[in-house]
């Protein structure tokens, strides 16, 4: 059942514009207009942005959606520069026109009842957990948030989330801020202490795998946002294989962009990923 | 041959997902009347190859996707009826391990309601389609086409998709046409390698001039063979280049991965009544 059935569904391919750009630590935060995309957004879905001179598109997590601003509805994305495509995106000034396709993929499933939720995110991939936390709070869920990164520069700001969550734990591998260590080091303990019924995770494979395994040990559900390269993002190219176990127990390979990016943690065949 | 060649704009095999994913980008007309070639369907389900399956290179993409598909039974039960209901003109791409498998696929697809035509994938760039019948020799490709043609009604097209091998394209096109192919699709991924040396196929804008040369060669040597251009079609100008070279239709592939609305835009620009069409 759709959350709000009256709203438009499905992705759109539209001309968008960069309306704000800001360096935050090691990342570039872009605010984009993309008519129709913010209206359709649900936490965990993503956008694919066309990059000048490149055939493949760049998939970006949606960090925040504003229903209205001076530019109308906008969405915020976090760009981590990893190659020429993301470098181009990060360098674009306000006013640049970009083609945006989205929202793409299956978002996080929300619990029907007010349950206890633990959200675990690492690096820029923690972005979709912030709007998720707001949705969960609206449903009366008790939300604990864990934000981790190699160092302070790659930590998404947890400050803004403090209003909507019960507790925030900050972890850095180098100990530059918060507790020292990785999400994988602390997850078993964090899941137990939070008494979570559902664990949501977004980040590199090791974090997702630890979250799924920690949840399983205490009998909680897990929802993980898997990040594998998605050359088109739309399900057309079959280029983002995600090995899973189906409901019938049969091993399958699905598309991370179309059947994911969010899947149940206990369904992922981690060893085959 | 009474079968009509589809077009003028088709979705190339392997770049249209299951077909459903295009609905959001198909424009006001939706999927109705869209000429779509499915990803290659095999008798048994195939999971496809390991990742990374596609990498970006200057001018295109290198891929080794490995023909992931749900197998014929599942395709007939789920994907095909959905596409037919949506009004899509479905050309099913087929791939098999033996000539017998090709014949079996063609026979069963000939009885399935709504299959507009078949495309025989005889131009895989490399061993990405491991376990498939070896069709690089024109004689072998023609044997496969003949087997498919025997099992598929003569009033529906059988297309032979050849890779744009500049030195052997005329030979391949002639063999496949003589074996009963309604048209030859000229242009497929070109044999290439991933940065780590793994075998794959190059597609995208870089392939356009190669495929165009092949279309021209087929037109010059075999003026009676209907040809469909495929490779680097991304806008009206690149499509018209193929039509001007003598192709009766074009297939759009990699451009859809860049901009999923490409086919919708080209359908608007290249209607069957436009003067470029024969």
Uncertain residue segments of chain B: none
Largest interface by Cβ-Cβ < 8 Å: A-B, 27 and 35 residues
Lateral strand order in the biggest sheet of chain A: 10-9-8-7-11-12-15
Question: Spatial order of the strands in the main sheet of chain B?
Answer: 1-2-5-6-7-8-11-12
Low-confidence stretches of chain A: 1-5
Class inferred from helices and paired strands of chain B: alpha/beta
Radius of gyration of chain A: 18 Å
What's the total number of strands of chain A? 15
The residue-averaged pLDDT of chain B reads: 92
Strand residues, percent of chain A? 25-35%
Please identify the oligomeric state.
heterodimer
List the helices and strands and how they pair.
The complex is a heterodimer of chains A (273) and B (278).
Chain A: E1 12-24, E2 27-33, H1 37-40, E3 46-49, E4 58-66, E5 74-79, H2 84-91, E6 97-104, E7 116-122, H3 129-138, E8 142-149, E9 167-172, E10 179-180, H4 183-194, E11 198-202, H5 205-217, E12 221-225, E13 241-245, E14 251-255, E15 262-264
Parallel strand pairs in A: 7-8, 7-11, 8-9, 9-10, 11-12
Antiparallel strand pairs in A: 1-2, 1-6, 2-5, 3-4, 3-6, 4-5, 12-15, 13-14
Helix pairs in contact in A: 4-5
Chain B: E1 9-11, E2 35-37, E3 54-57, E4 60-63, H1 72-85, E5 89-94, H2 99-111, E6 115-121, H3 138-151, E7 158-162, H4 169-178, E8 183-186, E9 190-193, E10 199-203, H5 208-221, E11 227-230, H6 236-244, E12 249-252, H7 254-258, H8 262-269
Parallel strand pairs in B: 1-2, 1-12, 2-5, 5-6, 6-7, 7-8, 8-11, 11-12
Antiparallel strand pairs in B: 3-4, 4-10, 9-10
Helix pairs in contact in B: 2-3, 3-4, 4-5
